[in-house]
Amino acid sequence: xxxxxxxxxxxxxxxxxxxxxxxxxxxxxxxxxxxxxxxxxxxxxxxxxxxxxxxxxxxxxxxxxxxxxxxxxxxxxxxxxxxxxxxxxxxxxxxxxxxxxxxxxxxxxxxxxxxxx
Length: 117
Hints:
By secondary structure, the chain is α/β, with parallel strands linked by helices. It contains 6 helices and 6 strands. Helix content is 42%, strand content 21%. Helix 5 (82-93) links the parallel strand 4 (73-78) and strand 5.
């Protein structure tokens, strides 16, 4: 098994996969983060209400954001769910407690999410 496959497997075990309804029903302080690259957002748009923080910088950005505490519910997604699982795993490792993987962009759209351009 390659390093990437092993990392994804570990992340997939630790970060729960959830649905858009789970996000909507979460009464905790929450944020939805699109971890895709800006080029991907330009090509397809993103999910309405989400913020873009690419996977490569998410730990740095959140650690320097006073509005996102370690208790905030953080919902991450990407194109298919792999990068979001790994990003969630990395956030968990640095102390964030409530991390959830929404999976892939298309999956969320099929659940009724709206696109923001």
